[in-house]
Amino acid sequence: MNRFWEKAIKPIILSTKPKIIVEIGSLSGESTFKLLDYCKYCGAQTIIIEPMPLFDVHALQQNYGNAAKVMQMFSLEALPKIDKYDLLLIDGDHNWYTVYNELKLAEKMAERTGRFPIIVLHDTDWPYGRRDMYYFPESIPEEMRKPCALRGLEPGRSELLESGGMNCTVYNALYEYGEQNGVLTAVEDFMRESHFKLKYYQLYSNNGLGIIVPDDSPHHSIINYIVATSGL
Description:
alpha/beta
């Protein structure tokens, strides 16, 4: 997600001025601290959902105060505990089950508050647009989990490598495409079923970035401009 900061995410934030941001997937906090700098300056808040943060949570809270809230739990446990938010950044567990249900929980929030958030999702293109990846396979119901292995990926090759390769330290589905497989598939399935009228924007570099915006949002023109001129 951090690779999209300057040309996409930062302009979206500065244009839409969210008061509450939810970030799913922080790890070392490359994007997190930029979000928090914005929040501290503008009187907003970022809620960080990360079960295993690679930063000092105590030091972060001391530095940013009320601008930051850290929830060290899985996203599907954390999202129901958040009353409302304006912007949702999804860069956590890149599989159909998790992303689809993250979107369904955002929809439930919107039904309750009357306002659908802007949602930004990483990894909507290769390799995880059409292939599941699991950090913790045991956290996914067995019937929703694709056959997977700790084997890496290579651009232009559908089969997993026998050794080495991209993301060989996480569990990758043995095959790509098919039903309920991958981040982009989750987005498409959700949007097809949702009773909210939504528009989807896509950037293709850096493994893909998807942006979901409600039809009644006043920000379509600026987001369309950002997507068209980012060069990403």
